[in-house]
Amino acid sequence: MKTTDAQVEHVRALISSVPPGRVTTYGAVAEAAGLSTPRTVAWILRVDGADLPWFRVIRADGRPAPQVRERQLAHLRDEGVPIVDDRVQMRRARHVFDDPAPPA
Asked: 30 Cβ partners below 8 Å, 6+ apart?
């Protein structure tokens, strides 16, 4: 199934809404946007996320993706995200979206 422009914009808006010092997961964004897989969120960030706070989107286990590990951890540390052993403390830093329903 093709990802629509509306879905891309919804994902972008969700990621933009994550406040400094907080993080979300690919899966949480996908669920809030009504997408079938977190991989679509990763794809959107890769192709259309340079102007977004991409570093606030992290794997569910709290570890950054290996290819951006150092950059992501540096950004998150600068924002005061709690990190222990290069793993975000998800219980303390997780952002919860207010309205998970996708736009009509």
From this structure: 36, 37, 38, 40, 41
Q: What is the pLDDT of residues 41-62, one digit of tens each?
A: 999 999 999 999 999 999 999 9
Q: How many CA atoms lie within 13 A of 92 on its CB side?
A: 9
Q: What is the pLDDT of residue 102?
A: 52
Looking at residues 31-49, what average pLDDT do you find? 94
Q: For residue 21, give the 3-state DSSP assignment.
A: coil
Q: Spell out the residues 6+ positions from residue 2 whose beta carbon is closer than 8 angstroms to its own.
A: none
Domains of the chain: 5-93 (1.10.10.10)
